[in-house]
Amino acid sequence: MTDRPTYCFIGAGSMTEALLSGLLSRGMLTGERITIMNRQNHERVRQLARQYGVILPADRKSAVSQADIVILAIKPKDAAEALEQWGRYIRPGQRVISVIAGISTSFIEERLATGTAVIRAMPNTSGTVGLSATALCPGLYAEEADLEEAARFFSSIGITVVVKEEDMDAVTGLSGSGPAYIYYLVEALEKAGVSMGLTPAVSRRLTLQTLLGAAKMLQETGEDPAELRRKVASPGGTTMAGLETLAQHKFQDALILAVQQARRRSLELGRSTAGK
């Protein structure tokens, strides 16, 4: 493995774009060290190549076999087919990083040459702005150096944690899908502001700053969110009236169920793929 490794992305979806945007904008990678390919939708690949200056390989087999690190960023339903097509060109000594939801390291290892280092990762699309929350777990043949390289890769676009593989589906439900829950909350807050007469621009600006400030308070004070909530909500006050309404509609329960359901879906994806 060189000090300036080369990368081959298999898959050109939203996660690939988030990684490219975050890594390239922060100087972690340069376009000439990255090749990218996709099973179909070749216009999408060309668009990413134009936008980020990455390489569309003339010889895709060589791109896979010669890359130091292969990034698997495909849909779970396409994992078996992609590994059947490209796995034969991956050799021990290369590193494989998978960001495929629900797919275990053992599933991937069984379709590669014995001894190939596989790291499973679950970042989120906030890597686009350098604020991803990424969980990593090593496969059977991944050594400490492999895990460290994966951590260095993802730490350039946010934070990383290492978890056991059996926890990766929970991570998928929480932080992998988590940005969508936050965006859904923001949509509702903005709509509430507009429904009461605020302009969309004012409602959005106030909502985003409120979200940013609350996250910063949690991060910098280290206080428990329940305690910070109590500090805002005076008995009989406006905030308490709003919180009581959220409680009546089981707001927390709904969020917990959303995370749990996303985890279940991740498990289902893994099981259905493993049966192929």
Question: What would the keywords be for this entry?
Answer:
about 280 residues; alpha/beta; Rossmann fold; ProC C-terminal domain-like fold; 2 domains; seven-stranded mixed β-sheet; elongated
Question: Explain this structure to me?
Answer:
The chain has 276 residues and is an alpha/beta fold. The protein folds into two domains: 7-170, 3-Layer(aba) Sandwich (Rossmann fold); 178-266, ProC C-terminal domain-like fold. 53% of the residues lie in helices and 12% in strands. α7 (168-176) packs across α12 (251-274) and α8 crosses α9 (200-221). It is elongated. It starts with 6 loop residues before the first strand and ends with a helix.
Write a concise synopsis of the structure shown.
The protein has about 280 residues and is α/β, with parallel strands linked by helices. Helix content is about 55%, strand content about 10%.
| CATH homologous superfamily heading of the largest domain | NAD(P)-binding Rossmann-like Domain
* Number of domain units: 2
**CATH architecture annotation name of the largest domain:** 3-Layer(aba) Sandwich
Q: Helix count?
A: 12
Q: Please outline the major beta sheet.
A: 7 strands, mixed
Q: Which secondary-structure class do the elements indicate?
A: alpha/beta
Main-sheet strand order equals 2-1-3-4-5-6-7
Alpha-carbon Rg, integer? 21 Å
Helix content: 40-55%
Find the CATH topology of the largest domain.
Rossmann fold
Q: Give the N-to-C terminal Cα separation.
A: 33 Å
The helix/strand order is: EHEHHEHEHEEHEHHHHHH
